[in-house]
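Intended use. Records such as the Molybdenum ABC transporter ATP-binding protein entry shown here are meant for training and evaluating sequence-to-structure methods. They are not intended to support clinical decisions.
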Amino acid sequence: MDMINARFRIDWPSFTLDVNLTIPGRGVTALFGHSGSGKTTLLRCVAGLERPSHGYLSVNGQIWQGEQEWKPTHERPIGYVFQEASLFSHLTVLGNLRYGLKRVAGSEPAKLDQVIELLGIGHLLERKPDRLSGGERQRVGIARALVVNPRILLMDEPLAALDVKRKQEILPYLEQLHDQLDIPVLYVSHSPDEVARLADHLVVMDAGKATATGPLADILARIDLPIHLGEDAGAVLAAEIGAVDSHWQLARVDFPGGSLWTRDHGLPVGRRVRVRVLARDVSMANAPPSHSSIQNVLQGHVDAIGEDEHPGLALVRVSIGGSQLVSRLTKRAAFDLGLTIGQDVWVQVKSVALME
Ligand SMILES: Nc1ncnc2c1ncn2[C@@H]1O[C@H](COP(=O)(O)OP(=O)(O)OP(=O)(O)O)[C@@H](O)[C@H]1O
C-alpha cells in the first residue's frame, strides 16, 4: 500500500524534532501546529534540506533516507512551494514553467498542458511575473513545482502571504489537487480554516512532536488534544447534497447519521461535499426543542466531555449515528443539563459552512 514512513530526530540547542509518522501515500496531509512547533523543519527533512542524525524516510516504496542511504535534495523527486513564489522576473510565465522542466533529469516531465489547466493559468502564459497578482503568482509557483512530475508535493504555508480575497481566489484550485493529483501533498499550515477545507489527513505538531495523526474528521473531533482551536474548534463531516429546496434556496446535506440544511450553492444533488460545523454554533438541550427558529436539530448522545481554552467553557462531543459534532458551551450550562457520557441529547446547529 502507498505510504510515507518518516522517522526523524534532530537535536538543536533550543529545539528537538522527534517524529515517527506513517502518512497515506495519496491525498493532502496537513502539518498543523503553532508557530515554532517544527512543521517547516519536518518538511525540510522530507526534502533533504535538513539531515537528521537519526532518520528514515520512504515515499511510496522508495527509500530516500535510511541507515546507509541518503538521497540529496536534487535527487529527490519533490515539488516545493513556499509562501511566496520566487519566479524569474525576466521570463514569462511559460518561460518560468519551461525553466522548471529543465530540472527533470531522467524521468518523464508532467504534461505541461495538464498542469496549466489544473491551475487555470492558460491566459497568463505570456505575462511577466510583475504583471501577476499575488494569487496568480502562487498558482504559477505551484504549476512550476508540478511540471517536474514530483512524487510528492511539499507546500509550506502557500497562502500565508496572500490577503483574504486572494486566498479565496486560489483555494478552489488547491481543492482540486485532492482529486486530480495522484501524489501525496504535505501541506504546512496554522490556519484551521485552510486545513478544514483542504486536508484529508492531519498531523498535529506540538513542540517538535507529532501529538496526533489520522483522518481529518477524526482528529478535529478529538477534544483532548493539547492544541486548542478556540473560535475555530469544530467538526468536519464528509457529506453529500441530498436535496435542494429551490423555493427557499436551501440545500440539504446528508451525512452518515443525519442531515442539515444550509444555503444553496447551486451544487447538484449527489455531489460530495465537506461540511464544517463550528463548536460555537452548536447548542444542546436534553429534550427536543419546541419553539426555536433553528431548523437543524439532531438527536445523538454525548460521547466525550473536555476542557476548552477558556476555563468557563467546555467542549462536548456528540455522536450522531456514524458522525460526530462538537459543541462549545459554558460549564454552567453543561452542569444545568447534567451532562454525562452516554446521555441522549438534542443538538441545534445554527450555522453550517459548506465546502465543495
Ligand atoms: N537551523 C536551525 N538551527 C537551530 N534551530 C532552528 C533551525 N531552524 C529552525 N530552528 C528552530 O526550530 C524550531 C521549529 O521551527 P520551524 O520553522 O520548523 O517551526 P514551524 O512550526 O514551521 O513555525 P512557523 O509556523 O512559525 O513557520 C523553532 O524554534 C526554530 O527557531
